[in-house]
Amino acid sequence: MASQPTIEKHRGLDRETVLEFYRVMQLSRRLDDKEIQLKAQNRIYFQISGAGHEAILVAAAHSLKPGHDWFYPYYRDRALCLGLGMSATEMLLSATGAAADPNSGGRQMPSHWGHKRLNIVSQSSPTGTQFLQAVGLAEAHYRAELMGEPSRLLQGYQPDAVVYVSAGDGTTSEGEFWESLNTACNLKLPVLYLIEDNGYAISVPVEVQTAGGSISKLVSGFPNLFIEEVDGCDPVAGYDTMKRAVDYCRERRGPALVHAHVTRPYSHSLSDDEKQYRCAAELEEEVKLDPIRSFGEYLLREGLATGADLKRLLEEVEEEVNRAADEAIAAPKPAKESATLYVYSPDVDPTSEAFDSGPGSAGVPAAPAAGDQKTMLDLINACLQDEMARDEHIVVFGEDVADCSREESLEEVKGKGGVFKVTFNLQRRFGSARVFNTPLAEANIIGRAVGMATRGLRPVPEIQFFDYIWPAYHQLRSEVALMRWRSNNQFKCPMVIRVATGGYLKGGAIYHSQTSDVLFTHIPGLRVVFPSNALDAIGLLRTAIRCDDPVMFLEHKHLYRQTHNKAAYPGPDYMIPFGKANIVREGSDVSIVTYGATVYRSVVAAKKVEEEQGISAEVIDLRSLNPYDWEAITRSIQKTGKALVVYEDAESWGYGAEIAARIADELFEYLDGPVRRVAALDTFVAYAPELEDEILPQVDDIVEGIVGLAQY
Q: Cα separation of 399 and 406, whole Å?
């Protein structure tokens, strides 16, 4: 056995620690090799390795605290997760797609890490989305601290917690990396960025990816940012650097970025062959840099281990990996009937009677309430006031949502409160810790909300105009809606995304009139609601906030201040369940299925055809688009025998097309005529009022549809 060398010589690390570094590095590499073997045997289905990255990752794991700090790793971070406490068996359970896989229950590819006990947040495949989420989680601590009682607001709160987030050098080309740095530096958040630079993003070399070939040089102008480059193939040097970076974050001086130069001795994945784009000389040089080889030589050279020590250690690792492989191969696979589990919350059902507060919420017209009649805008604001007073976890943010970011001016100014004034006076009442403005960056808004929701806050972010939601679509589609399902219910992401949508504005034109509800109703895991009147708006919004799923809450701009849809304030607990349509007009000859701004137009059209031609049309306001009330549609069509689907979006491929297809498919025996649609033209909304009227569905278009169907 080698003698104990002086600790100072090895950056404060003792012999046991550096040998543990080597053990975890070898375990990580042997697991990669075992997966490659299992893939060749068709026992697993995909493999991507962390080879060459092990040294900096064991240093990172030793610098941080599992279950105390929070982690957003990426697919090369096998050694980090092993160092934090994940077992070899747990990793191979993921590779074999076993039901007991703690990362995802067999739902994600191998090396997509997630471990509730260790605070490793479920990872996805899209590169770069994790950066904003890590910032959002750190911001949850920041907001809770500003509110004054973080331990009460956040379960397991640690005042010195650091949020780790990592990626390869190629991922720093994603805009969300830069958006995250902007916010992390601006708020001085304790986010530790580890950029593992192996010189390639699959086949694209770093000099093609990054101007100047160095990400640490590019970010050098960010304020409050600790930056250090390190040889990521040297775990001792890596630990020294990582410890300084972690200390900087723990002291709340700001975020840190460690730029670690690592190597990639294997191809990007087993689906890639690096010999197609890397020359022989380069690959030979890569072998010399391999940290498994170089660190073993270092241990021998420094007298930290003997050859016998390393041989025995490697034999123990091999035995552990083989035992883990046998267990993982034998482990049961997920039951087929579990496929749809955890798409939505298993605990809170927003379609249930628990969210039914009375008239107007069970498919019947709402009884008029006493009191002053308020617009939809007013009642949405009232609901936000109610719910923020009820639940301190709720935070409201977005572009221009605060009354005034410069608090010293609040006494002098009227306040903004959103471009439509929906959030007016929320900041004044609840403070800037809970109501705040964000950069003009939609992905930033939603990505941060993901991290906040994961940590336990209740975000209600606003996207100012539906037309500009597309930079956030990646977060909405791949992260918000998938967090619960892909983590097998280990993590969740409840939030309400408020979005002003729709046309009929007279001057809204192309980029202030869009509706594309179907692009969100198509996403499993995301609830979508679309009120047509003030009473429904307050009832559905309260349900959205109190349910445990992410909800897209669509607010039609044209309906904000209309007089025809006003209602009296129904009280602080008024709710409407999702998936319950409202029959706003009874009829017997034709069923009109609609929602949003076309509800009122459909009612006007129905009255007109009844007065002029004696045709009785029933108007169904869906209110909730996912889920939607198929039973109400069925009952109506069984009565009338005719279906007209009216919607504001373009006719082709729209939400109404799915409703029409299902009616034709499942209710054919009750139909006395074709299923017809009235929708917008397959083009964009124009600025000139004459063109807008021609493009969007009007009352006369609906009248024509009713009359045409009634003739059958």
A: 14
Residue with tokens 């030979």: 284
Preceding omega of 350 cis (within 30 degrees of 0): no
Strand order in the sheet with 191-197: 70-72, 163-168, 191-197, 256-261, 226-231
Question: What CA–CA distance (Å, rounded) separates 512 from 678?
Answer: 22
* Residue 23 φ then ψ, to 5°: -60, -45
Closest CA to 708 of 618, 642, 634: 642
Quick one: which of 202, 210, 212 has its CA closest to 278?
Answer: 202
The closest of 473, 554, 480 to 519, measured between CA atoms, is 473
Residue in 141, 512, 556, 558 annotated catalytic: 512
Residue 631 belongs to what H/E stretch?
helix 630-640
CA distance 220 to 454: 30
**Rounded distance between C-alpha atoms, residue 530 and residue 399, angstroms:** 21
User: Model confidence at 203, in pLDDT bands (50, 70, 90)?
Assistant: confident
The CA distance from 241 to 258, in Å, is: 8
**512 noted as active-site residue:** yes
Q: What stretches of 140-234 adopt beta strand conformation (E)? A: 163-168, 191-197, 200-201, 204-205, 226-231
For residue 364, pLDDT over 50 is answered with no
For residue 44, pLDDT over 80 is answered with yes
Rounded to two decimals, what is the model's pTM?
A: 0.94
Rounded CA gap, 96 and 101, in Å?
Answer: 9
Please report, for residues 369, 569, 622, the alpha-carbon distance to residue 383 in angstroms, rounded to integers and kept in the order given. 16, 9, 21
Distance separating alpha carbons of residues 179 and 443, to the nearest angstrom: 8
Is the distance from CB of 587 to CB of 518 less than 8 angstroms? no
Which is it for the CA torsion 531, 537, 539, 545, positive or negative?
Answer: positive
CA 290 to chain centre: 36
Taking the CB of residue 507, how many other CB atoms lie within 10 A of it? 10
The CA–CA distances, whole Å, from 154 to 382, 458, 598 equal 26, 11, 43
Count how many Cα atoms sit within 13 Å of the Cα of residue 456 in the half-sphere of its side chain.
14
Distance CA 103, CA 94 (A): 7
The separation between the first and the last C-alpha atoms of the chain, rounded to the nearest angstrom, is 94
Check: CB of residue 15 under 8 Å from CB of residue 304.
yes
Map residue 85 onto helix, strand or coil: coil
DSSP letter assigned to residue 596: T
Distance CA 165, CA 144 (A): 21
The answer for residues whose C-beta is within 8 angstroms of residue 101's C-beta and 6 or more apart is: 90, 93, 94, 488
- pLDDT-based confidence at residue 5 (cuts at 50, 70, 90): very low
Determine what percent of the chain is predicted with pLDDT higher than 90: 89
- Residue 51 near residue 266 (C-beta atoms within 8 A): yes
Q: Which of 200-204, 334-338, 676-680 has the lowest average pLDDT?
A: 200-204
For residue 498, count CB atoms less than 10 angstroms from its CB and return exposed for 0-12, middle for 13-18, buried for 19 or more. buried
Q: How far is CA 258 from the centre of its chain?
A: 26
What DSSP string describes 226-255?
EEEEEETT-HHHHHHHHHHHHHHHHTTS--
pLDDT digits (tens, 9 = 90+) for 111-161: 999 999 999 999 999 999 999 999 999 999 999 999 998 999 999 999 999
Residue keyed to tokens 């298993």: 346
Say if CB 370 and CB 434 are below 8 A apart. no
Q: Are 278 and 215 in contact (CB under 8 A)?
A: no
In sequence order, what are the residues at sequence separation of 6 or more whose Cβ sits closer than 8 angstroms to the Cβ of residue 333? Answer: 96, 97, 98, 99, 106
Whether 352 and 394 have beta carbons less than 8 Å apart is answered as no
